[in-house]
Design goal:
The protein is an alpha+beta fold. The chain has helices spanning about 20-35, 50-55, 85-90, 100-105; strands spanning about 10-15, 40-45, 65-70, 75-80. The chain has one domain: 3-Layer(aba) Sandwich (Glutaredoxin), CATH 3.40.30. It has four helices and four strands. The model has no long low-confidence stretch (mean pLDDT about 85). This is Circadian clock protein KaiB.
């Protein structure tokens, strides 16, 4: 038997300064990293105003953009990152388990 090795996730979030959309995206991605990828993720935050060469290199057309580099395949998610289900789907994370009510468990 092989031991379970945690998957390492490498994410890059492209933002534009401290704009409200960038701040909201950063909060959403950090929450996702803490809740779903705890201990398995490296998150790099790139301010497009400070790092224009990275914007060109990585073909970033809009912000915020979240790039999943590892595990493959490479994925880019652009725009509103507050929809947890959409972000999870784009990153190929398992869907959130359904919430059971007492009536369903009987």
């Amino acid at each position: 038997m092989t031991a379970d090795v945690p998957v390492r996730w490498y994410l890059t979030l492209y933002v534009s300064g401290a704009s409200p959309r960038s701040a909201a995206a950063l909060e959403a991605v950090r929450r996702l990293a803490d809740e779903d990828l705890a201990g398995q993720v490296e998150l790099e935050v790139v301010d497009v105003r400070d790092e224009p060469a990275l914007v060109v290199r990585d073909d970033i057309l809009a912000v915020p953009t979240l790039v999943k580099r590892l595990p493959p395949p490479l994925r880019k998610l652009v725009g509103d990152l507050s929809d947890t289900g959409r972000v999870r789907l784009a990153l190929d994370l398992r869907p959130e388990p359904p919430v059971r009510t007492d009536q369903e468990g009987s």
